[in-house]
Amino acid sequence: MQNLRGVWIPNVQHSQVLDSKKNTAMAMNFLKKIGCNVVFPVVWNQGYTLFPSKVMQKYGFDAISPYFAVQKRDPLADVISEARRVGLAVIPWFEYGFIGSVRVDGSPILNKKPQWAARDRQGKILTTPPYIWMNALDPEVQQFFLSLILEVAQNYNVDGIQLDDHFGLPVNGGYDDKTKSLYRQQYKQEPPTDVKDQKWIQWRADLFTKFIRQLYLSVKKIGVQKKKPLLFSVAPSVQPFGMNSFLQDSDTWVKEGLVDIVHPQIYRSDLEDYKSEVEKIQAEFTPAQLEKFAPGIALIGSSQDLTYSDIMMRLEFNRENGLDGYVFFEYERLQQLYTNFLITRSSDAEAFFLSVV
Fold first, then answer.
1. pTM check: above 0.90
2. CATH number for the domain harbouring residue 26
3. Are 69 and 19 in contact (CB under 8 A)?
């Protein structure tokens, strides 16, 4: 998708976009006004869907997040309706990936399916506080996710689906009985106890890449059936961190043609650090492959929030390096920047991202 100008829409903390259809409509109007063309609304978070799911019910889970069950609303349907009204594309975002929950009292998924838990080398349930993880390498867990993703692709008028850095497995995982047994069958020995052993990392990452291939082909098949191309979009961590920390071999996914759009999360407050990551991407891929990249930019930085000037310098540098698109994290900060822009510059909406649109 050329010149993608997207925004992630979460449902936690301060974000209120999905709280009502009125809020959703106002958000879509705003994004259209400033020149965005794609929204990435969250549909999977903390072990719950943000749409009524028959797949979830089939597995014995809540059909939708309790918050929206009380409202008797389908937030995804509202986003699609309002986005289409103003001409925006919609790519649902499965934000939590294989994270079961952030709840200290357990996961709504793993409480009912404890056998789905990822395990560390001590055999304990894998956690990276505050997250509790499901086993991304377990075929049964993978089938659950495949069904969930295809449910959205099949039943909603969307333009694709998106996965992110949580759609992987922390490098400490892979020590569950199923994965260890598979490793023994292949190598006639126990898996390495060193979680950073490079062959062990690659072996587990290859298993996950195999699943990515299955997802990609399945989504594409539905697109053919619906006579509407569906995009397979991913927002991984930058490399080599993504590979060495979450078994996400996203470079291979791009080179093997298993993704349509890639939004590496170049979440860097320092401009030079940001430039360094973009240059690594430019050096790694061919011009044709670079066309798939639209970097993820966090407007709320790890050490400081980005200013309008910060954003413009990043987008200009992207263009100089053959990366025309972007996706912002996230909506509320973008709206705040816009408000500040109008106050300080006494300008109009058309000028906000004039250098981008």
1. yes
2. 3.20.20.80
3. no
